[in-house]
Amino acid sequence: MVKPEDLLGTWKLESWEITYSDGRPTTYPFGETSVGLILYTPDGYMSATISRSDRTPMSNPNVRRAPQGEKADSFDSYFHYSGTWRIEGNEVIHTVQHALDPFFVGTDQVREMDYRGDVLVLAANITTASGAKMHNQITWRRP
Fold this sequence. Notes:
Layout: H1 4-7, E1 9-20, E2 35-40, E3 45-51, H2 68-76, E4 78-88, E5 91-99, E6 108-115, E7 119-127, E8 133-141
Antiparallel strand pairs: 1-2, 1-8, 2-3, 3-4, 4-5, 5-6, 6-7, 7-8
């Protein structure tokens, strides 16, 4: 059983892959070389960030003045949320307080855990509109 102290600290992203029950090929939401960090603090806060490793800088260093298309590309290549965390059984639950995607705010993101010392695998299963099962698996490693 995973204890809260097992998760504390920083974890670097190794991979995020999605497999499908209907035979579709495995997908990688931010590419096979995506980068990211997840942090768990002793006072119960967490933060997760994942992005493409090949993000293109915007043409204007002030994001508010960048063209809309560049802003959309930047949004599509980056994922972040933060909030509080707790463990229940074999799951870690992230209660989202801040997120790039406003839909996430106020939700509980439940992840099954597979903890192996310096490797942490978080997984979630979702049913697609077509009824297929979508298995998200994110692998993290201590730096």
